[in-house]
Every structure is written in C-alpha cells, then in structure tokens.
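This follows on from our talk about sequence and fold. Can you supply me with one protein entry, sequence and fold together? Could you add the entry underneath, on a fresh line?
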Amino acid sequence: MTLKSDIKVIDFLRSVNKCSKDVWFLTKAGDRINLKSELSRYLFLTAVSTPDETFYNLGEISCDNPDDFSILTDYLTDW
C-alpha cells in the first residue's frame, strides 16, 4: 500500500508508534526504512520534505503485523 500525498507526516509517524510490530517504507530501489527507528524517521522526514512531491509514490508501506494496517488506514491508499 502506498501513502496518500496529502497526509500530515508527523501524525502518520505517531500512528506508526501505535503499531505492535515494525512498519516499513519499502522503496522501489529495494531499500527498507524501518519507521519505528528514530534514525530512519529522521531520514524519512528529510526525504518527504524535499520539493519532489512524488516521494510518496516512490515506495510502499509494509507492516510486520498485518493487523497494524488498520491503525494506518487514514494514511494509506488501496485500503
């Protein structure tokens, strides 16, 4: 599932904190960014704040616990 382009990233990351297992941003280049890691969050925030508005479409969100997708519903497309 991909991120919607109009989300508030800070709110999204707060919701990620509520997830029981790891949540990943998987890039098309094959990178896996663990959004529960503070360092990865910093990198993610830096990337989404760039002028390139297509960043949200450059990867997908994956949850180690499929039930965690329900926590992130407001931020995902294809849900």
About this structure: Residues 9-75 form one domain. DSSP finds two helices and three strands in the chain. The chain has one domain: 9-75. The two ends are 7 Å apart (CA to CA).
